């Protein structure tokens, strides 16, 4: 049998043996580029969220500032009205007193007893009005210790009473809710002179 002919392989037209595909870049570089893209996307997303939160906070601050301004303006109006109408309760209580005084003055030839009873009734109305607004008399009794917070001494006179006590009241004082608005005018007993 004849020898087989040796086979000759030609490289022309034959496909070359398969080689592993060469990557476009080295594996380390591809991973870094991918990571940078992810970081960029995450950073942009975080930036958008931060901007949105900042805008929400700014809007909330503007609303709170506007509300505070409104509250301040309302308080100023209420305070101005409180000053303006502070005596409204007292004024309403004094109107009947004025009516009674006017009725007394219009009476034709009223007897002295009728006038006295009318004035007495009017004084009771006035005292009731004072009580409703906590306006109280300061009328110290004779012999009561002098109180510089409620009394004003007009003079000191020699007296058999204890020194620095009230001898008599020249004009009643008044306090409003425990604040003295007019002290009682009084004369006070002088300390006794022991030089005799």
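Sequence proposed for the structure above (196 residues):
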């Amino acid at each position: 049998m004849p020898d087989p002919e040796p086979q000759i392989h030609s490289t022309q037209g034959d496909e070359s043996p398969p080689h592993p595909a060469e990557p476009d870049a080295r594996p380390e570089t591809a991973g870094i580029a991918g990571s940078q893209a992810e970081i960029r996307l995450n950073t942009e997303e975080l930036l958008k969220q931060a901007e949105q939160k900042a805008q929400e906070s700014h809007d909330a601050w503007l609303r709170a500032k506007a509300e505070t301004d409104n509250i301040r303006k309302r308080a100023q109006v209420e305070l101005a009205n409180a000053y303006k109408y502070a005596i409204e309760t007292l004024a309403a209580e004094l109107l009947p007193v004025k009516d009674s005084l006017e009725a007394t003055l219009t009476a034709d030839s009223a007897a002295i007893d009728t006038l006295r009873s009318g004035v007495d009734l009017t004084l009771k109305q006035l005292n009731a009005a004072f009580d409703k607004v906590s306006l109280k008399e300061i009328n110290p009794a004779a012999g009561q210790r002098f109180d510089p917070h409620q009394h004003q001494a007009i003079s000191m006179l020699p007296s058999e009473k204890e020194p620095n006590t009230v001898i008599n009241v020249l004009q009643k004082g008044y306090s409003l809710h425990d604040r003295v608005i007019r002290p009682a005018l009084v004369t006070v007993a002088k300390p006794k002179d022991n030089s005799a």
